[in-house]
Design goal:
Elements lengths: L2 H4 L3 H5 L5 H6 L5 H10 L4 H25 L3 H17 L19 H6 L5 H16 L23 H17 L7 H12 L3 H9 L3 H4 L9 H17 L3 H8 L3 H11 L3 H14 L5 H7 L2 H9 L6 H20 L2 H11 L11 H7 L5 H16 L3 H17 L3 H7 L2 H8 L5 H16 L1 H8 L1
Length: 453
């Protein structure tokens, strides 16, 4: 796509002079259409407003007939710019397309067709107009263009056709953007409006659309990126009400990404949506345990300490806090241990020295490629808390003692060097447990226990 074509904007398009008289002479538009266009074209919003107020459906009919009957790209872009301008000024004008007098018009067909052809300008305006118009239909369960039954023999594009066509186009734009800067912004903006509809949620999930949203959940700083993040979070929140979408969210990195964003965001509207999403997901499947894993109880505490003005956000934070407390209570002994490790809050709670705990749970340490063990090693390297260091050394020695391949695994993970450094630590508790760990690593559990005794 040529760069000048890709960056075409409405102001440039609306500076064009369209030969309406020529189109009438060649019978591409009627005399009535020409009169309406002369009154409307190149006029200010102040002059156009009463025209649309008094005779809006007639203008819609003219615009649709031009898009249906005239193929010239300059003219198509011009009419799309006129419609877009009209709807941008007052979005509720989209209802004009559903006026009873237009029951015989296929109001969607030109836009749905243009979505797949022509310049980026044509596609972008068509997607935006379609989204507004289909969302404004009076009967959301209706099948015809304006939600009314029709006796016409000709096939009229239904709202379901539009919604499915839009979802398909939007997913393609998210996968392979036609425009380097605009495709994703436009697609997410449309989806944020359309995902309120059950049929769109269903089509979007079937098109594997959920995974296309996840990479867009990332910290934002510029005004444009904050708006994109907000609209992406709005999409995820809307999907959190739909069970099949929840299954996709559970297997994606949506939760870690949302946690990362909410931790650092100061934008209340973004924080509110993420917290409301967490609230919706808390009781679903393993989400509660995942949230505890991600340290969400601490994040919620931090958020509650900030001065938010939104009552819904404050209520959701309180609800989330209580729900997370309930989840922690339900966790198994290994889950509790894992929480201690993942949060870096190691202390001499009974389970560390409980031989039954280690015997019963030793294979759980193998989960996620020994994730819990790896975090223990990270604590040894990064923590400045003597208690946490001492407990981590002790737990490592317990793993060596109870896991059949404990010494090999710990050696492979290069734990020896980290523990050796701690043998010279200023804190006696740390040096004692570091020594025990090294003894078990070198001598095996039996001899180390004899020496310890």
């Amino acid at each position: 796509m040529p760069i000048d074509q890709a960056d075409l904007n409405s102001d440039q398009v609306l500076r064009r002079d369209i030969p309406w008289e020529t189109y009438m002479t060649s019978k591409l538009i009627t005399g009535t259409a020409l009169q309406l266009l002369r009154r409307y074209d190149k006029k200010s919003e102040h002059d156009r407003a009463p025209l649309l107020e008094n005779d809006g459906p007639s203008y819609v009919r003219v615009f649709i007939s031009i898009l249906r009957d005239i193929q010239k790209e300059d003219t198509v872009e011009y009419v799309l710019a006129l419609i877009d301008e009209m709807l941008t000024e007052k979005p509720n004008r989209a209802k004009l397309f559903h006026d009873k007098s237009l029951a015989d018009e296929d109001i969607y067909e030109p836009f749905l067709r243009l979505l797949w052809k022509g310049s980026w300008f044509t596609q972008e305006k068509s997607s935006k107009i379609l989204t507004l118009v289909v969302s404004a239909r009076p009967n959301k369960n209706g099948l015809t263009a304006n939600g009314k039954a029709t006796d016409s023999k000709k096939k009229i594009t239904t709202s379901d056709d539009v919604l499915k066509g839009l979802v398909e186009w939007l997913c393609i734009q998210l996968k392979k953007p036609s425009h380097p800067n605009r495709s994703i912004l436009v697609s997410i903006n449309c989806l944020a409006a359309l995902l309120k509809e059950p049929v769109v949620r269903s089509s979007f999930v079937q098109a594997d659309g959920v995974k296309l949203l996840v990479p867009l959940i990332s910290p934002a700083s510029t005004q444009q990126s904050i708006q994109l993040l907000y609209e992406t979070c709005l999409c995820v929140w809307l999907l959190s009400y739909y069970e099949p979408a929840i299954e996709y969210l559970a297997t994606s990195r949506a939760l870690p990404r949302l946690s990362e964003v909410v931790k650092g965001s100061t934008k209340e509207k973004v924080v509110r949506l993420i917290v409301l999403t967490f609230k919706n997901l808390l009781s679903k499947g393993s989400f509660g345990a995942q949230m505890v894993d991600l340290g969400l109880p601490q994040i919620v505490q931090s958020l509650k300490a900030q001065a938010w003005s939104d009552e819904d956000l404050l209520d959701a934070l309180n609800h989330l806090e209580e729900g997370l407390k309930d989840n922690i209570k339900k966790l198994s002994s290994f889950d509790k241990y894992k929480q201690e490790v993942l949060l870096g809050h190691l202390d001499w709670s009974p389970m560390h020295k409980d031989s039954n705990f280690w015997r019963d749970n030793i294979t759980n340490f193998e989960e996620n490629d020994f994730q819990t063990l790896r975090v223990l090693l990270t604590i040894l390297e990064t923590s400045s808390d003597p208690r946490a260091l001492a407990v981590a050394c002790f737990d490592l020695s317990q793993f060596i003692q109870y896991h059949p391949a404990g010494r090999v695994i710990v050696t492979d993970l290069k734990a020896k060097e980290r523990v050796m450094k701690l043998m010279n630590h200023e804190n006696a508790e740390v040096t004692k447990n570091a020594l025990l760990c090294i003894q078990r690593l070198f001598l095996g559990a039996k001899y180390a226990s004899f020496l310890q005794a």
